[in-house]
Amino acid sequence: MTKRTGCLVRAGCALAEEKKTEVQDKKPSQIGFIFTMSFVVINVVVLGVGLFFAYKGTIGWDAPVYTEEQAFERLKFEQDEMEKLPLIFTLDSFKANLNDNPVRAIEVEVSVEMMNREGYEELIDSDNQARVRDEVLRILQNKSYDDVSTVQGKLFLKDQFSASLNSILKQGIVKEIFFSQFKIE
Asked: CATH 3.30.479.30: does it fit domain 83-184?
């Protein structure tokens, strides 16, 4: 009986060992199957997203509707914005002798801000530029070092430039005068 029981036990052991090897063989194939299926699903999703964006970027693209009214509104807006910008014209550099006993020279670069576009266009006209240049040089040559060396003197010089340019221009009004460069030698 012992032999039989031993045989039966041995036979049972052999069957148990076979089942263990079958289970072990099935586990790697199931893991491989899961990885393969997840790879396929991810690739299909990525491909779908890529095709969607390709379609929307080419065939599915609709041109924006841009009407004539929108174009006029945009043009009007841009013109209004241009009107808000300062209209500044920089004159050429002026070099003149001051009216002093030891002769000193002054070099000034003047920028003129105008109130409106018509005045700006009048200022940049070549006929008016010659008159403006002559007037600025005349004012500078009548000044002494003491007149232009102080802050108050420079402010007074700006006022004189502004008044004389306003007398030359017919339509334009000078809003502000700026000195870009101011050297006394």
From this structure: yes
Beta carbons within 10 angstroms of residue 148's beta carbon = 18
State both tokens at 98.
């001051």
Instruction: Mention every residue, 6+ apart, whose C-beta is less than 8 A from residue 90.
Output: 109, 110, 111, 112, 180
Q: 45-67: per-residue pLDDT in tens? A: 999 999 888 887 777 667 778 78
CB atoms within 10 A of CB 114: 24
Question: Which residue intervals of the chain are DSSP H helices?
Answer: 2-57, 68-84, 117-124, 126-141, 145-148, 151-168
- Name the residue type at position 35: F
Single pTM value for the model: 0.55
Backbone angles phi, psi at 61, to 5 degrees: -80, 130
Higher pLDDT, 20 or 53: 53
**Domain assignments of the chain as residue spans, ordered by start:** 1-62, 83-184
pLDDT tens digits for 146-161?
888 899 999 999 999 9
- Which residue from 30, 31, 173 is spatially nearest to 113, judged by alpha carbons? 173
